Amino acid sequence: MIVFHIAAIVLAALTVAGIVYQLAAARLVWRFARAIPPMPTERPAISLLKPLHGDEPGLADNLRALCEQAYPRFQIVCGTLDAADAALPLASLVRNQFPAAEMEIVSGAPDNAARNRKIANLESLLARAKHPIVAFADSDIAARPGHLDDLAAALAMPGIGIATCLYVARPEPDRWSRLEASWVNHAFLPSALVARAVGRKDGCFGATMALRREVLDRIGGLAPLRDILADDWALGAAVRRLGLGIGLAARPVDMVVHHADFGAMFAHELRWARTIAALDRKGYLASIVTQPVILGLLAALAGGLTMPTIAILALAVAARLVTIRIEERALKLPRAPLPLLGLREFLTFAVFATASLGRTVTWRGLRYRIEPDGTMHKLEDLSR
């Protein structure tokens, strides 16, 4: 049928574009991983705020990595909204292990009307920050040596108002964590580098962000982010409206990935995807080109499994595999087995398709609807 023939041609063309994208992404990841990080011309004092929520895997190690930073002066402020949160004993343990560190723990933060509970926590921590540079780091992020210098160097670049970091996923040794880590390392991170390479400088990633306190005050502090799920994107956008840019730190941080089961992993990825889709639906739909294996498979099926379509599919599989192996070597990752990589391709497409058809997400036991401006509205409490 003519419809299937046309579909096969279109899908084959998209597959070829996806192959080119994969090879370009591999080159950019390789360059990024091998770049020599610049040293900052100045090393201003930094207050690093780390909102905590529960006894997450690797939390104590993540806090230790901050305490071990070789930086002249910095303050660590971490805390929880719940005074009985299981993260607090671990934070106290780390503080006792590093008595020389300027580390403060805040518990039972005053509640406010923020729908984004992380922002509510950060507002409480921000009240204790006392240095001219303020950094925000998620609880599952582990800082590498020189991390604060990387932030200072990126923030010192001309015209930069906020510094952000890419992240490399370090999974717990289970199937679901390894699957999500594969998406972070071989889909998200490369796509962020490609976006910057083609001129999109709006990527601001919540793993770690740093900005001057005066800039934060000019955008109204954290209050404008209280009802925004993609608070990192909104913070970057607010800084850009001041005419300032987003600087990318020369080296990534590490993100600990842990999921107990498939449901937890899928819900987490769907939340990420639907947040992106809500903010930029056209761009999100266009990102299908980053999945050449699925596109090639659809082209082969639509084309009746002819030799040309099968050849394009084979090229897509080869390009994707080569790209992943290059990225693994560049980022010093363990070699992923082929069955896991194959499953990841189909799962990525499933998340993409599901995210394209709705706006609801679940986060910390609550279900929300995401509006086109990123605002979140609570629908129900799933913990009851």
Task: Quickly describe the structure.
This protein has 384 residues and is an alpha/beta fold.
Tally of domains: 2
**CATH topology (fold) name of the largest domain:** Spore Coat Polysaccharide Biosynthesis Protein SpsA, Chain A
- H/E element sequence: HEHEHEHEEHEEHEHHEEHHHHHEEE
CATH architecture of the largest domain: Alpha-Beta Complex
Major sheet strand order: 3-2-1-4-8-6-9
DSSP, total strands? 13
Distance between the termini: 53 Å
List the helices and strands and how they pair.
Elements: H1 2-34, E1 46-51, H2 59-67, E2 74-79, H3 87-97, E3 102-106, H4 117-126, E4 133-137, E5 141-142, H5 147-155, E6 160-164, E7 167-171, H6 175-197, E8 208-212, H7 213-218, H8 231-240, E9 245-248, E10 253-257, H9 262-279, H10 281-286, H11 292-302, H12 307-331, H13 338-355, E11 360-363, E12 366-370, E13 376-381
Parallel strand pairs: 1-2, 1-4, 2-3, 6-9, 7-10
Antiparallel strand pairs: 4-8, 5-10, 6-8, 11-12, 12-13
Helix pairs in contact: 1-6, 1-11, 1-12, 2-3, 6-13, 9-13, 11-12
